[in-house]
# Entry
Amino acid sequence: MNTVQALLFAIHREANQPVRLMEVCGGHTHAIRKFGIPGLLPDTVSLLSGPGCPVCVTHTGFIDQAIHLAQNYPVIITTFGDLIRVPGSGQSLETARAGGADIRIVLSPLQALSLAETERSKQVVFLGIGFETTAPSVAATILTALERRIENFSVLSAHKIMPPAMAALVNHQPNLDGFICPGHVSTITGSGIYEFLSRDHGIPCVISGFEAPDILESILLLIRQINNHQPKVEIQYKRAVKPEGNMKALEIMHEVFVLHDDWWRGMGIIPNSGLVPGGRYAGFDTLQRFSLPEFPDTDNRGCRCGDILRGLITPPECSLYGKTCTPESPAGACMVSSEGTCQAFYRYQN
Ligand code: SF4
# Structure
């Protein structure tokens, strides 16, 4: 019996009551679908996908705000590739670019900073999205901008942290039995950020890697915690995650960013869940440089990304899935992003 077979054997033997487990990492969502894991599990184990895709949780108001900025000020907007195709309430950054707005795709925040260094006469705005995984690199870029006195660079930040969203999910999803905790986020944060979930809410947590045996072992560890009524935080992904996390990256992130109440698609405003440049770095916050209106979160008609991100439905339950919404012609963020749940279901068809 190989490792996968042994893990599946143990899961089938020990999953003797219904359990609902949620992953909150787009990488896990895709790995689970790619390896066909749901089809290998007993009927007692349900896997739900939560708000783990950074592009997906970025609400339409942020996209509308970026488009407004690009169309009304002499700026260069820089963004990662996935975000450019996400529909705002009216158009996407891609269609705004086709209409003449100066919107450019970059591979890193440092590339955006280099652009600012060569285009000194223009303001260069980086659209900062992502969780604790990406926030430190953006923070480091801001530190570099300060050091090199590059004053025409700023960040329109939709950066978010995971624990407040997981707390909100627990409150909205009383039937949630455990979290498959994000592997990449945890390499930065360590395991301590999840302890309140097991201690205060009785929710088992396992930080998982991304290979099939990792995910299966994490599921088995969660089932054992549930069966033993001993919720705690375990690290399955020991080859990458240390309990204390990456201290240097955390230090940089906390140096540059401060917490604020932030919008999450489908979940509304979650207190202290977002990161913006603060203190002596507040001048790098785009919102401090331009007077921008706030835009509400308005999903496209018929798109149920908000329900997908809370684990309330699966993509095939959306009436647009696979019909008017496909990766080639996406109607919502969850189909645009390479980490989105709808794209994962569509690509792997399970
Ligand atoms: S299938 Fe498309 S329209 Fe439906 S929820 Fe997913 S992204 Fe939105």
